[in-house]
Amino acid sequence: MLLKNKSHTLRSVADKLNVSTATISNAFNRPDQLSKVKREEILFACKQLGYLGPNKAAQSLRRGRSGIIALVLADSIDYMISDPVASSFIRGVSEIVKDNGSHLLLFSGSSPSINSVIDFVDGFICYGTPRNTALFQELERCPKKVITVDFEIPERASVGINNHQAAYEIALQALSPDDTVAIVGLRITNAEKTSKIIETDFVDVATSVGFQRYKGYQDAMAKHGLQIDTSLVWSVPESTQAYAKQAAEEILNEPKLPNTILCMSDLIALSILKELLSAGVKIPEQVKIVGFDGIEETKRYHPILSTVYQNSTEKGRMAAHLFNSKDPKSLLLDYQIFCGESC
């Protein structure tokens, strides 16, 4: 019968079994130090006492590391794990963390402070600028290792792609000199609902992937002698079908339908593409659409979306490798322009 006793400590168990504390510790943590028979005997006795092993928190304090890495996501955990780009990134990080015998703690970028976890993690990998800007300031001052992804903190290593150049190149695939251009941005303002933008509403340009892509579109348009019409620029707070559908409905209600739509994510682009097709709009004959990210769903839908392909799983692996590096250096990863059927 299992005799659970929450008051058991390493010392009390050793005394009860008439062995040293080192013997108990070796049974749990250094099996090579004991014979197989002796170890099984100790573990069975501990199980009967309800003792699960030496205190992990105390061990972490002695070693100076916990084996836990906090992955700070840009937004709420439920939203981020449902996003195909973010989930691919998390998969890449998890692969390397697992191979190194460590553990991953998902942490919401909407949380009030990293102080709730800072004492028991070895450091932070930050995927995207946290929605709560106070976290950004805390991470700047954090004494532990911090790796950023798709944004930068001074004197911290980062992983990303050149979002400005990638957006510039994909826009050039769609644009012509006489186009009427709409832009559907992802979190380029702090608005909590789909809405048209006002220039002064832009989020912090130094840390915003959305703004870098916006500038890439702007430069591509300038190459064709075009200027951005801010009355045709929308910001969606999340890359979801519901928010993108609202933008699509507003685009369809414009007095003059734009003939080119530049979207900052594939999920946004696919949602808008579906709404336009449902309304009888021909793609790309009447409206050209491009996306960004290269998610798998783009290959299963017709017309096939033109987009920027970035390997988010590999980005996750590289972020984890940087975290494990003794002297991490920032990395700029490759991307590919995929020319589909939508422009």
Write structural notes for this entry:
With 343 residues, this protein is α/β, with parallel strands linked by helices. It is built from 12 helices and 13 strands. It has helices at 10-17, 21-29, 36-49, 56-63, 77-82, 84-99, 133-141, 163-174, 209-223, 241-252, 266-278, 312-324; strands at 68-73, 103-107, 123-127, 145-149, 158-160, 181-186, 195-196, 233-236, 260-263, 288-290, 307-309, 331-332, 336-338. The protein has a 6-stranded parallel sheet with strand order 2-1-3-4-5-12, with helices on one face. Helix 1 (10-17) crosses helix 2, helix 6 packs parallel to helix 12 and helix 10 (241-252) packs across helix 11. The protein is elongated and about 85 Å long. Mean pLDDT is 90; it is low at 1-5.
Count of discrete domains: 3
Strand content: 5-15%
The CATH first-level class of the largest domain comes to: Alpha Beta
The helix-and-strand class reads: alpha/beta
Number of strands: 13
| Poorly predicted ranges | 1-5
Write down the CATH topology of the largest domain: Rossmann fold
Question: In DSSP terms, counting alpha (H) and pi (I) runs of 4 or more, how many helices?
Answer: 12
The level of helicity is 25-40%
